Amino acid sequence: MKNFIYLNDHKMYSLAAQHFAGLAESLVGVDQELEGTAQHLAELFKAEQRGVDKRYVQDYAYTLFEKHLIEVEKVLTLDREALDTREDILPEASRLSFVKVTGKAVFLDAQTMIDNLKRFNKIGEAITFVTNYGDLNRLHEEYRSLVEKVNQSSANKHMKQAKLKELERAYQNSTDIKELVKNSNLHADQNFIESVSLLLDYGYQDQFEIQLKGSQALFSSLLSQEYLRETQQQIVRRYAKLTDRSFTLFGVVTQNPHDKEDMSSESLNAKSIKEAVINLALQLSNVDTNFAGRSSGEITIDPIAVYTEL
Questions:
Q1: CB 310 within 8 A of CB 304
Q2: Whole-angstrom distance, CA of residue 62 vs CA of residue 5
Q3: Tens digits of residue pLDDT in 191-222
Q4: In which domain, by residue range, is 5 found?
Q5: Which residue in 191, 164, 187 sits closest to 176, CA to CA?
Q6: Do 128 and 66 belong together in one domain?
Q7: CA 168, CA 166: separation in Å to the nearest integer?
Q8: Total structural domains within the chain
Q9: Residue 53 falls inside a structural domain
Q10: The pTM is what?
Q11: How far is 306 from 12, CA to CA, in rounded Å?
Q12: What would the pLDDT profile of 252-293 be if each residue is shown by its tens digit?
């Protein structure tokens, strides 16, 4: 059984309609002689249109879709062991239409990371206050007690005022949250935080990425919120950013180092506005590469499904 956290049903039905002759016509009401998986998919799609529980229909349709593609040998299937030992992953991922990768996953939630970074100093102050709450209360009681003793003493007014100011300075210095935060490494320069936040927002925005990595290859995929079965925060809290359970990623290869051609981004001698724009785009692509460029051996996947096996 499959426990889906992501399923792009539109892409699944689109690819199925192109793969199975007559399926598209059947889906729009044209009578077609279908059999096997194509017939089952057509019936499931029509059941979905009649109001049968959408997720139930999609989950079963996907199971048939994946099984058929594996049977006709259009899928590169990699388990955790193969990710570490198989040496022909890059050329095979280029040769086959689909990949099915299983392994420990890493979830990268860019928006949460950016939001937390922007609030880093506030979060640091809150953590420091909570963890030092007992000591702060104790210092407050000691301060009140000392103030009371000074007020009850027989010293003259000026001596009392001087002593009270001294006590107040000592109390404020020992209970200054901002100073305590700096001493506990939970504070960063605000300008630095704003600059890093701007760069992250430019490079990653609200991306939610899954990665499955082995010693032979890294598979990465951006997950659209529209097809997530739960919110990004729920997924990360439920499975952790670095998961203990194995996840399966199924999809289409969109970028593969094996297919990469050496395309120079040298400056063009612009002879027209169009060439100048192309030159600018090439230069900006270098900036984008610093954020979204693939690492060595990284294969990018256009995802159809992400799930765990039960």
A1: no
A2: 13
A3: 988 888 888 787 777 789 999 998 888 999 99
A4: 1-72
A5: 187
A6: no
A7: 5
A8: 2
A9: yes
A10: 0.70
A11: 13
A12: 999 887 666 554 444 445 556 666 666 666 555 555 555 555
